[in-house]
Amino acid sequence: MSGRHRLIAVLLAGGLSFVGGLGWRRVITGPEVLVDVAAAVIIPVVLVAVLSGRHQPPSPIVTVVAWGGGFVAWAAATVAVPAGGLWSRLHLVAVGMVTGWARLLDTAVPAPAEPELLMGPVALTWLATAIGAELVVRTRTRLLPALPGLVLFLVTVSYATASGGSDLPSAAGFAALAALLVRVRHPRVELPWPGRVRPGRPDPGSVLEGPGRPPGRLTTLARTGGAVIGVVAVGIGLAGGPLRVDDHPRIDPRAYRATAATGTGTGTGTVELSPLSRLAGWTAHPQQVLFQAALTSATAGPAALRLAVLDDYDGATWTSSTRYLPAGASTAGCPETTGPATPGSGHDGARVAGAASAPVTQELTIAGLGGQLVPVLAEPRQFVVLPGTPDPGTPTTDGAVTGGSAVAAGQVTRGRFAVAACDGVLVRTEPLTAGTRLRVRSWPQAVPTAGQTLTLAAASTPADARARALPAGMPPVLRGLATIATAGGTSPYQRAALLRQYLRTNFVFDPAAPAGHSLAQVTHFLEQTRRGTSEQFATAFVLAARLLGLPARLVVGFSVSGADTAAARPVRGADALAWAEIHFAGTGWMPFFPTPMAADARGAVVAGATQGESTAQAELVNAVLGTTVDVPTGPPRPDTGTAAHHHPSGPSPAWSDRGRGIRVAGTATLLVLTGYLGLAFALPGLRRRRARRRGTERTRIVAAWLHALDLLARSGQPMPAAASPVEVVDAASQTGEPAGTALRGLAELATVALFGDPGDDRRRTATGRGAAAEAWRLADALDQALRASVPRRRRVAQRIAPAAVAAEIRAAAGRRRAGSEDRKTPRPIANGSQSITSGIAAR
Fold first, then answer.
1. 43 pLDDT tier (thresholds 50, 70, 90)
2. pLDDT, tens only, 255-279
3. Cis bond leading into 110, ω under 30°?
4. What is the pLDDT of residue 534?
5. Of the candidates 257, 95, 232, 234, which has an alpha carbon nearest to the alpha carbon of residue 162?
6. For 181-213, what is each residue's pLDDT tens digit?
7. Range of 297-311, 435-449, 665-679, 756-770 with top mean pLDDT
8. pLDDT digits (tens, 9 = 90+) for 123-132
9. Considering the entire predicted model, what is its pTM?
10. pLDDT for 40
């Protein structure tokens, strides 16, 4: 490869790494990431190009030290500047290279452009670029230098899964650059077209395919462009067709990180996981102001601000398995509810139900709430601290907090948040002190129509196992409740709506009832008092839903109501509430509010929706109930457990997204491998069969000779390109018998067929009827004799080698082109210095 072509190939390898590194812009916010990625591509390319020059590249140790030390110097001078002194910068570079990848997985997307988070992506981009450039200057393989860029591209795609968006433009650009790289590294050989001359054999194109010429530049360019377009079209077709999995949530590697919940910065290292224990205290002080809330673009009716999600229940206590990820000022939301719809997939209704409605902005001013959990609407994606918020200071190593100052007027601070996107909850990583002002922007789910709920199926993923688990010793009254309340329900959503209506109709909310949510207290509430708190209503609903096979969990939060929710209004202890959520496939978690309004002085239930339920949600439930049977009244009867084996109807995904992807990829790989092996073993036999039966006696003899030369080459005895048949016999004298006898007889026939005078009687006799059959009999005898000298493993490896398969495909394509030409045109036959013109009749 010339120096110019090598330089172009190095630049293309850098371009592949840049395309792969562009995916980091979806993982980290801010322009810094694009600048750093560009620098991480340009500098290694320059270093490798300068070190290699026009001569042989230096020792790998020298180049590794050069671009490795270059990265440390560059990173310390740019990315790690906020760390301070030189040693602090070097420490930050080392820590970022070792743990940056893990910290990025433990941060909500898009992550803030902090030096610790930037170090991993730029280091990986630098490494991929340097290795790709080194492979260009040290190897001759055409596509191997693209492998580091491909690995980088796959890594960025997996990291950016939670951010949504399409990777098809980047994939198309990567395929185009890879095709150009192959073209640049492909040596131009001036050989007769369509094939190249192999050692010890005449050009098959000259005898069997006819005269050819090297392809012109325009033809080469057209073929290269066609290959690029074909690769891109196939990739887009697979991504939009057979490989499309839009009806399943995307695979996010963060879901497989076995890490604990994020620390709160208070020195304890844990977050407040269960505020359900504080619910009774808030209810006992109904007039205590916990915070003030102002909601803009809110829907009519109450709005439910969620504080925490609880999904683990052991029969006595609710706890949470929520995993919070550190976040800057925004997050991409939950992939399940932010993914694109699939028109015509049969899940359009579910996806519409899961789509986000108009964003709602919440301005919160904390009063007596305390803790660190922030009350927000579902799916918070943007969050900042407003001016005037007191700074709680910096925690010391012993857990004490140093004094801080208030946020300056006009200054909006970012960071110090952690979020659980799919649970829709937000935590402040430092205490919520009185006077803290926050602005949160959420994208809650749009309320579906009654018809759309008919297509909703209960989710069935491995992550939902915890939301289906039941404690030991479930009381019969809960099984009876699940059976009686949902009688007549025809879909999972209908059964959940019936369960909500049954609790609302047959039980009374009493904030003065004894608090608690153990199985004993829930049983007492259902069988004896029939009056309970919202935690008991929500616990009964969740357990009954799980008995029906529905994945359900409990949510703690507040109900913000009033004539105008856009105006700031105080949220008091009386507004604290617990409700339930059920997970539907492709839609996400949908809320259900089983707690009725408070009873009046005479014990009657106040008419209207349940607590925390918006007007749209109440209308949806009433519409769904209109298509079901009347809700039964009266106390639930004990059941022997039939409800425990009742499963929701409707379709459920048979594969998880991960399993489906593995199966599709495995099936595609198996099909490609089977097709490749089929071509590798079928094409040579088809070629020999065609050569035996088609053409004149002379052309069939020449084909047998060419086959003999192939056999010698595969046995480790390649012949010189200019060797005549007699010289081939002399060079192959070490083959022994019976191979020598077969080769000598075949060489005599080939010599006469190739170089004999058309008017010579000897040639007419040698190429007469039966001569071709004799030539192929000798070729078969040579094959049998040489086969014993070549191990089976080597023969199989030669047969399936990519170069051999490609040569067979080119030969087959050349024969088809030759078949369309005039078969009576005189064709020159070249072998060394000899050139003989023969008239070949129709084959």
1. very high
2. 666 544 444 333 334 445 468 888 8
3. yes
4. 93
5. 257
6. 888 886 544 433 333 444 444 444 343 333 344
7. 435-449
8. 999 999 999 9
9. 0.62
10. 93
- Report whether the peptide linkage leading into residue 58 is cis, meaning its omega lies within 30 degrees of zero: no
Residues with Cβ within 8 Å of residue 367, at least 6 apart in sequence: 289, 290, 291, 292, 434, 570
Q: How far apart are the first and last CA of the chain?
A: 41
In the three-class reduction of DSSP (H, G, I as helix; E, B as strand; rest coil), residue 319 is classed as strand
Secondary structure of residue 440 in the 3-state scheme: strand
Q: How far is it, in rounded angstroms, from Cα 167 to Cα 28? A: 16
What residue has token string 């030369």?
709
Average of pLDDT values for 169-188? 82
Contacts of 470 (CB under 8 A, 6+ apart): 543, 546, 547, 644
Contact 519, 474 (CB under 8 A): yes
The one-letter code for the residue type at 48 is: V
Would you say residue 584 has pLDDT above 70?
yes
CA distances from 32 to 121, 262, 821 (A): 12, 26, 61
Contact call for residues 129 and 44 (beta carbons, < 8 A):
yes
CB 706 within 8 A of CB 204: yes
Backbone phi, then psi, for 445, in 5-degree steps?
-65, 145
Cα–Cα dist 423/297, whole Å: 22
pLDDT of residue 194: 36
Q: Are strands 531-532 and 508-509 parallel, antiparallel or unpaired?
A: parallel
Query: Do residues 634 and 493 touch, judged by C-beta distance below 8 A?
Result: no
Please list, in sequence order, all residues whose beta carbon lies within 8 angstroms of the beta carbon of residue 46, skipping any fewer than 6 positions away: none
Measured between alpha carbons, how far is 415 from 407 in angstroms, rounded to an integer?
13
Residue 511 has pLDDT above 70, yes or no: yes
Q: Determine the Cα–Cα distance for residues 577 and 535; give it in Å rounded to an integer.
A: 7
Helix (H, G, I), strand (E, B) or coil at 353: helix
Coil, helix or strand at residue 42? helix
Among 400, 402, 362, smallest CA distance to 382 is for: 362
- Burial label for 426, CB within 10 Å (0-12, 13-18, 19+), is buried
Judge whether 559 and 574 are in contact, CB under 8 Å.
no
Distance CA 684, CA 677 (A): 12
Cα–Cα distances (Å) from 105 to 80, 127, 261, 469, in that order, read 20, 20, 13, 28
- Tell me the three state secondary structure of residue 305: strand
Q: Are 415 and 394 in contact (CB under 8 A)?
A: no
Selection from 603, 582, 580, 661 nearest residue 246 by Cα: 661
User: Which residue's structure tokens are 């906020």?
Assistant: 82
DSSP percent split of the chain into helix, strand, coil, nearest 5: 50, 15, 40
Residues written for the chain: 843
Report cis status (omega within 30 of 0) of the bond before 340: no
pLDDT at 843 over 50: no
pLDDT score, position 597: 81
Q: For residues 497 and 190, what is the distance between their CA atoms, to the nearest angstrom?
A: 77
Q: What is the pLDDT of residue 418?
A: 87
User: Across the chain, what does the average pLDDT equal?
Assistant: 75
Confidence at 567, pLDDT banded by 50, 70, 90? confident
User: CB within 8 A of 514, min separation 6: which ones?
Assistant: 521
The average pLDDT across 651-676 equals 65
CB 48 within 8 A of CB 134: yes
Neighbouring residues of 198: CB distance < 8 A, sequence distance ≥ 6: 709, 710, 713, 721
